[in-house]
Amino acid sequence: MASKMKNRWIALYVENQVGVLAKVSGLFSGKSYNLQSLTVGTTEHEDVSRMTICVTSDDVTFEQIKKQLNCMVEVIKVMDLTDVPIHMKEILFAKIKKIDCLQKQEVYQIANVFDQGGSVEITDIGEDSILMECMLTERRNNELIALLKKQFKHVEVVRGGAVAIESISTSCR
Amino acid sequence: MDITGRKLFVKALQEEGVDTIFAYPGGMIIDIVDELYKTEGMHVVLPRHEQALVHEAEGYAKATGKVGVCLVTSGPGATNAITGIADAHYDSIPLVVFTGQVSQNLIGNDAFQEVDIVGMTRSITKYGVTVKDRKDLGRIIKMAFQIATSGKPGPVVIDIPKDIQTKSGSPDYPDHVDIRGYKPNETVHIGQLKKAFKMLRHAKRPLILAGGGVNIARAGDLLVEFAEKMQIPVVTTIMGKGAMPTDHVLYIGNSGMHGKYASNKAISECDVLFSIGTRFNDRITGDLNEFAPRAKIIHVDIDAASISRNVVVDVPITADARLALEKLAEYADEPMDTTKWMNQIMKWDDEYPLDMRRDRGLCPQIIMEEINKAFPEGIVVTDVGQHQMWATQYIDMPAGKKFITSGGLGTMGFGFPAAIGAKIGSPDKPVVCITGDGGFQMNMQEMAMAITEKLPLVVCIINNRYLGMVRQMQQIFYGKRYEITYLGKELDESGKCVAETEEPEYAPDFVKWAESYGAKGIRVTSVDEVGPALVEAAKATDAPVVIEFMIASEEIVLPMVKGGNPISEMILK
Questions:
Q1: Which end is more exposed in chain B, N or C (fewer Cβ atoms within 10 Å of the end residue's Cβ)?
Q2: Structural domain boundaries in chain A
Q3: Are B122 and A70 inside 8 Å of each other by CB?
Q4: B469 belongs to the catalytic site
Q5: B-chain residue closest to A65, CA distance
Q6: Predicted ipTM?
Q7: Are residues A19 and B303, on separate chains, in Cβ contact within 8 Å?
Q8: Which residues of A79-116 are buried (b: 16+ CB within 10 A; e: fewer)?
Q9: Residue ranges of chain B with pLDDT lower than 70?
Q10: Which homologous superfamily does the CATH classification assign to the domain defined by A6-80?
């Protein structure tokens, strides 16, 4: 009966009001749902916010999560993005510290490999450190972090959580 | 012309048809309280504790079908109300709870009596908001009433800072507010309903499980009609009790942890289970893997999130119970042949009927039977514990009689205030509160209000000198180690309560206690005093009567299913 645990994606339209983020995140903690990431920002309508939520769950729990979200008065719309074509990106800054010239070159090489038309840039550099800015998928960011941690001792990472939007369907292109 | 927030508040209540409000004053609602002073035709009742206040509003709402309106101050007033709000949330009772709040310039300062009550109650309310702008006040109050009463009813908390109460603004109160994120289900999927009916029609051993949703939707009459037309037996949850008259030939009894043997057997053996208005709480299902193992399950519920959450169902139908039953009635054509199945159920019931041994003096079953005789109609309200289970097992429910109890949260202290609220809402109906010596003490201060309101309630305290429900578990599963469940005066030398010792005195003396308030107190210690005491109590006209029934501590609630076990595995003796 229990289906596979996997990452699932929701786009959530909510009222842009105080307390709504707390209510949505409180649902996940209160009911022990496994929240992976949650980002929120305003939309083209200033009174509406859109959240991109990633959660790890089985099918039954995921259905329940969507229903529970739908119950909330402040939730305007729940969209399941799990199995639809989407564009998704996450911003990531990685500061690699206490490195020498050779290692700096290595960072440049890594940036080059991960770069897809400007999605990875070296945005700042100092005597013994480099700041890398990446706009990749969450998975690609995970891979990059894993690699940086393996190659260098002093890595400081900050990531923004993924945002996602549905692809323009082929018939509309 | 602009009016103050406090004036708009009262105007809003009047337009909502509110004539009774449960209120406890405090600094942050004194302006509203002052406005109520100037308002005619509003019955403002003063409970003695905010938890009880909310239970009173719940009892009122349950008895009348109207919204229970509460007004409490900020800080401790609001936090005291939380238990009541949670209780209303789990039993889907429509409440609008107004809390005072410190002025907005003080919010966030840890000001005197400041708490974030909206944040604290987020997971136990249908909706909650702090009014931040005077111009939103009317719209927010309207929203509160709409949300509390529609769809699956529930509590709404509206937090009003002091400055909003005194600030001037528009006098308008809207007739309706469009809430874009809130669209309660007002239809029923006909295709699903037809599918469900077809499935039921082809069943050999059909069974209806009716929950509290049927009572909330006031759909009991339709349920009975449908069951009769189709000849399908009915079991209920505790919250569903009374949905079908208990003396009906098709009614089996309550199901679940302390349900009837025949009811749980029927669930375990049925081949189609038509469940309506229940969320399949664990107290009903027991071990989920063994719940209705032979049945295809149809589930009708107003709340989509309640469907296929605990029990995976075959035919989900999101709909109000009344609407679903109205539509189903159109399909119900000819009765099914359920004679064999009914006979089987009757046979189970004969094997293990609900029956207590009567050789230990005052037996709870006898008390319940006498209550049935003395109060054949009206409203029965219970607290939480053993007495509650005995009431759910033995109280008769003819059509029209109401049963009010705390099912979801199981809140001790609920019964007495809820009975007071029910009596305020239905002054012409007899109201009997069945409570325990433990739970009663949790909100017994409300006697003061019952006296000042001149309410002729009958309070039956089933006194076994223990917190009996926990004691029962200690007796059966914890080697009779009665730690902190004994409520009598003295303990043995080791400081522990011992089961078999002679009973020492009890504190308080409930009879003297009742009399000190100006209520009547009666102590019943033998079987032949039960009936006369109840008859005497029923004569009360302007004050409560407290009857203390001294029962044996050893009485336990049977049958019983151990938590987490299949409901077919019942402890019967």
A1: N
A2: 6-80, 87-166
A3: no
A4: yes
A5: B305
A6: 0.89
A7: no
A8: bebeeeeeebbbbbebbbeebeeebbebbeebbeebee
A9: 490-504
A10: ACT domain (3.30.70.260)
